[in-house]
Design brief:
Layout lengths: L15 H12 L4 H16 L4 H10 L2 H8 L10 H12 L3 H19 L1 H9 L25
Helix pairs in contact: 1-2, 1-6, 2-4, 2-5, 2-6, 3-4, 5-6
C-alpha cells in the first residue's frame, strides 16, 4: 500500500479538545462529557466502516484520541448504508434512530471538516448510499433512465 504525502502528516491541526467542543456546539450538548461520549461512540462505529487508504488518511488527520478510537475497530467486510449505520448506532447506545442521527451528524460534520473535501469525497465514494448527509454534505443522485409507459 502506498501512502500519499497528506496521509503521513503526523500532527493534526485540531486538538481533541477542540474537536469535542465543536461537537458540543454542533450537537447542542449540555456538557463536554456528553459530547465526548458522542465522539467516542461515533468514531468507534465509523472505524468499522472505512477501509484502505481512506482509513489511513482519515486517521492521520484526526486528533490522536479520536484516531485511536477510530483505528481500534476492525472494519466490517461490507460497510453499512447510512441508515443502517444510524440504526446500529441507536442500538448500541440504547437510543432512538432520531437521537443517533443527531449524534452522528454532530460528530461526522466535525470529521468532514478535518478530512477536507478531497479525502471526504474519496471516503463517500467508498461507502454505500446515505452517508453524505451524515457528513453534512448533499447526497447527489445519479439520474435514472425514464421508464417507458407500458
Amino acid at each position: 500500500m502506498f501512502h500519499r504525502p497528506e496521509q503521513l502528516r503526523q500532527v493534526p491541526e485540531t486538538t481533541y479538545d477542540q474537536m469535542v467542543e465543536r461537537v458540543r456546539y454542533e450537537g447542542a450538548y449540555p456538557t463536554r462529557e456528553r459530547a465526548e461520549e458522542a465522539v467516542r461512540r461515533v468514531m468507534s462505529a465509523l472505524g468499522r466502516q472505512i477501509t484502505g487508504d481512506e482509513r489511513v488518511g482519515l486517521a492521520a488527520r484526526l486528533p490522536v484520541e479520536a484516531a485511536l478510537t477510530f483505528t481500534a475497530q476492525v472494519p466490517d467486510s461490507r460497510p453499512l448504508t447510512g441508515w443502517a449505520f444510524v440504526k446500529d448506532l441507536a442500538g448500541a447506545a440504547g437510543g432512538t434512530p432520531a437521537t443517533a442521527r443527531w449524534e452522528a451528524g454532530a460528530v461526522l460534520t466535525a470529521v468532514a471538516a478535518l478530512a477536507g473535501p478531497d479525502l471526504l469525497a474519496r471516503i463517500l465514494s467508498g461507502l454505500p448510499d446515505g452517508w453524505a448527509l451524515l457528513f453534512g454534505q448533499a447526497q447527489l443522485l445519479t439520474p435514472q433512465p425514464a421508464r417507458s409507459a407500458a
